[in-house]
Amino acid sequence: MSSNLINKLNSPAHEEVRKLVTQDAKSRNGTSSQFTLDGERGQATSQLCRKLPDGTDQCATIALEARDLFQTMQSLGFFCILPHDPAKTYIRCEKIPS
Which portions of the sequence form the region Disordered (predicted)? Predict the structure, then answer.
């Protein structure tokens, strides 16, 4: 990892994402939700959403560009992919089983 990426991963926004993911896993007895992230290119904030057991989404605005949020989710052990439909702009992230 480059030192620039390490600095980003130590930012308050990264810490907020880590806390959200950890709280989610605790609320699900150790398993993680499916997350989606979305943000406009070049914007300083992105949306991070998790799918709740009842099928609804719970979202938070994160002070990271979408590409940085993508890197953060990958650093937390998530596999993130784009949807097959090119008209959709979100990225879906699922925890890689350990």
Answer: 22-42
| 3 state SS of 41 | coil
Q: Is the per-residue pLDDT at 5 higher than 60?
A: no
Reported confidence tier of residue 3, pLDDT bands at 50, 70, 90: very low
Measure the CA–CA gap between 81 and 87, rounded to whole angstroms. Answer: 14
∠84-86-63 over CA atoms, to 5°?
A: 100
**Please, are residues 94 and 79 in contact by the beta-carbon 8 Å criterion?**
yes
How many CA atoms lie less than 13 Å away from 68 in the CB half-sphere?
24
The length of the chain in residues reads 98
Q: Which pTM does this prediction carry? A: 0.79
Starting at the edge strand found earlier in the chain, the sheet holding 91-95 runs: 57-62, 46-51, 35-38, 91-95, 78-81
The answer to whether 94 touches 78, Cβ cutoff 8 Å, is yes
Distance CA 19, CA 72 (A): 12
Q: What is the rounded average pLDDT of the residues 69-73?
A: 91
